[in-house]
Amino acid sequence: MKKIIIRNWNELNDELFKDTFDSKIKRFRSTFAYRGVSDEKHEILNSLTRLGKPYKTMEQNLIKQFRKYAHKHVVERDTEWHWLSIAQHHGLPTRLIDWTYSPLVALHFATSEIDKYGSNGAIWKIDYSDAHKILQTKQTTSLDTLGARIFNVDALYETVTDLKSLDGLHAKNFDVAVFFEPPAIDDRIVNQFAYFSALSDPHLSMNDWFKQPHVKGNVNVVKIVIPYKLKWEIRDKLDQSNINERVLFPGLDGLCSWLKRHYKPI
Fold this sequence. Notes:
The protein has 14 helices and ten strands. By secondary structure, the protein is α+β, with helices and mostly antiparallel strands.
């Protein structure tokens, strides 16, 4: 993992978009997943782990009860990856972790919490194409067929059918990560340019996964530290660029969150 402490807005933009040029097609086509955190000390933990000390069937029980009580038409496909995507989106604790294609959306989440303006923030960049190279050929067949480097829920289902199949790829000090696009169920997912990751160990933090021997040196991981003194400048420039709660959380709740923060006195 590479750690970079930026000093100004220009350096920040350079680091966010670094290594995103595809020389084969001579276009900027990023294969990075971005995640913004308001405090650089925060680990990348999934919400299932944050729920508390796990017991053996906790994850399965959560998903089972969600499928039981959710409306039968809530998903377009009856696969576990569809159900997980919907559940994560609506706040159920799962092993999934939220990422975005957009570095500016990640910057929003690193600077949206006013009460964290005394702490350094951070943006995590991870090359999901590198992460998928760890998988075996039979697990990337659907990607190769589509000429893609990230799964959608249907392509993932074709090669890693469900969580049990993903768990089967776990070994001592060896785990894999899959990155996949959720179904575009509402404007929030679309506007946040969002997608998910899942690890073969449901309680492993991404930080600990980065330290595993087969990941270190093989997966491009960058932590960009944002000094707290730059947060207001970044926040104001994001608002000017229309990257804010009103856009990322469409509806009255997002509008009110934006107004409350935007007009808060310093």
